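Researcher: Quick test of sequence recovery. C-alpha cells follow.
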C-alpha cells in the first residue's frame, strides 16, 4: 500500500512539474542566445531581403501609421506606433516604439534587446561576440561610437542607429525613468544615448567591431551589396 501511495504521489508530482514547465514555456519562450530585435520598417521595405538577412526570427517588425506593406513581401507588422511624420522624423518614431515596448513588455523573455535597420548587414556571429564580451551589469553596445556634441548638452555617448542595444535590465530602468522628449534635429540613435544619460544609467559601453555589422554596403572580390537612398 505504501509503495502504491508513493508511486501515485510521484506520478502526480511529475504531472504538476510538466504542467508548470509548459506554463513557463508559454509565458517565457526560450531563445537560443537571448537576443530580440526591433526593426522599424516602412512602405519601401524589401521583404525578401529581410527574410534573407535573418531578421524574422526573434524580432518585432515595427510599423507606423503611414506604413503600407506589399502583400507580395509576405511581411506583417508585429507592432504599430503612432508617428505621423513616419521615417522622416526617426527620433519621434523611435521614441514611440520604446513607449510601446515599455507598455507591452515584449522584451521581458530576452537577455538583450537590439534595435536595428533593414540596411544593416549582420554577421550572425555578432551575437557570440556580445555574449562572450558581456561581463554582467549594464551594457550598451553598437558600432560607430561617438558623443552627442551637436544636440546633447551632456555629451552622452551613442551608437549608430542601424545597430545598437542593451541588456534588458536597462530597458526596465528606462521604462521606470520615463522617456525624454526628442530635442530638435536630434537623431534617433543620439536620442537613445541621451535617454541613458537622462536616466542616470551606469553602464559599460561595448564597441562592436564593424566587421560584424556593415551599414548600407558590403563588398568582397565576388560580392557587392549596396542599398540605394530612399527618394
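Model:
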Amino acid at each position: 500500500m505504501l509503495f502504491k501511495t508513493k508511486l501515485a504521489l510521484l506520478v502526480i508530482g511529475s504531472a504538476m512539474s510538466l504542467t508548470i514547465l509548459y506554463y513557463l514555456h508559454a509565458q517565457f519562450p526560450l531563445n537560443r542566445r537571448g537576443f530580440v530585435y526591433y526593426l522599424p520598417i516602412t512602405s519601401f521595405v524589401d521583404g525578401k531581403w529581410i527574410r534573407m538577412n535573418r531578421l524574422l526570427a526573434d524580432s518585432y517588425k515595427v510599423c507606423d501609421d503611414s506604413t503600407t506593406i506589399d502583400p507580395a513581401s509576405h511581411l506583417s507588422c508585429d507592432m504599430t506606433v503612432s508617428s505621423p511624420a513616419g521615417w522622416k522624423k526617426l527620433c519621434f518614431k523611435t521614441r514611440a516604439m520604446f513607449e510601446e515596448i515599455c507598455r507591452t513588455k515584449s522584451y521581458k523573455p530576452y537577455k538583450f534587446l537590439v534595435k536595428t535597420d533593414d540596411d544593416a548587414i549582420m554577421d550572425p556571429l555578432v551575437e557570440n561576440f556580445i555574449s562572450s564580451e558581456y561581463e554582467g551589469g549594464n551594457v550598451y553596445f553598437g558600432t560607430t561610437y561617438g558623443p552627442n556634441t551637436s544636440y546633447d548638452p551632456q555629451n552622452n555617448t551613442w551608437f549608430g542607429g542601424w545597430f545598437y542595444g542593451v541588456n534588458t535590465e536597462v530597458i526596465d530602468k528606462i521604462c521606470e525613468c520615463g522617456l525624454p522628449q526628442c530635442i530638435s534635429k536630434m537623431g534617433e540613435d543620439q536620442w537613445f544615448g541621451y535617454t541613458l544619460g537622462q536616466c542616470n544609467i551606469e553602464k559599460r559601453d561595448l564597441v562592436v567591431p564593424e566587421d560584424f555589422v556593415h551599414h548600407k554596403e558590403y563588398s568582397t572580390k565576388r560580392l557587392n551589396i549596396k542599398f540605394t537612398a530612399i527618394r
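Helices lie at 2-27, 47-52, 90-104, 126-133, 168-177, 188-198.
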